[in-house]
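Task card 7
Instruction: Convert sequence to structure tokens.
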Amino acid sequence: MVKSFELSGYAIAPRDPAEAMIGKADSSFQANRSLLGPRGFRTYVSTIWKAMVEAWIGTRDQQLMTDILSMALARASSPGRKEQVSMMDNSYRRFSKTSEAILADLEKGGYMILPDEATPHMVAAAVAQTAEHRANAKAIGADPKYLKAMYENMLGARPKECRPLD
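Output:
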């Protein structure tokens, strides 16, 4: 299941950022040289992450995620059919209720399925969260490129339970 999402350009990650994710958000950050300090940086990063996750929830295609998971379940339930990739098959649709339940349980457990790259809506939400009513957004850490890179760094540092088994 996890591998199917990763192949489709998505990743499973905690809704609230883990310690390691916050630590990897910006490797160039030096708490002793910043006005934020370690606690301020943690709050800043958590706020950015939550704004991006909330923006994703509002714009995601839930049916697409259900279909990806349904297809993964269909392939796992019938391993012999893997060789017949050219044949069009709608058997994955029978797993849609199970997929919806799995996705709901995943979210109840505090995890989300997120894109592996921040969408424009997510970046815009992060910029708005950090630069509300400010003229020079880039000077205060609301540069869209910086926020996108921060998101990708954090996603790369997600916990082991959110990664496919090797």
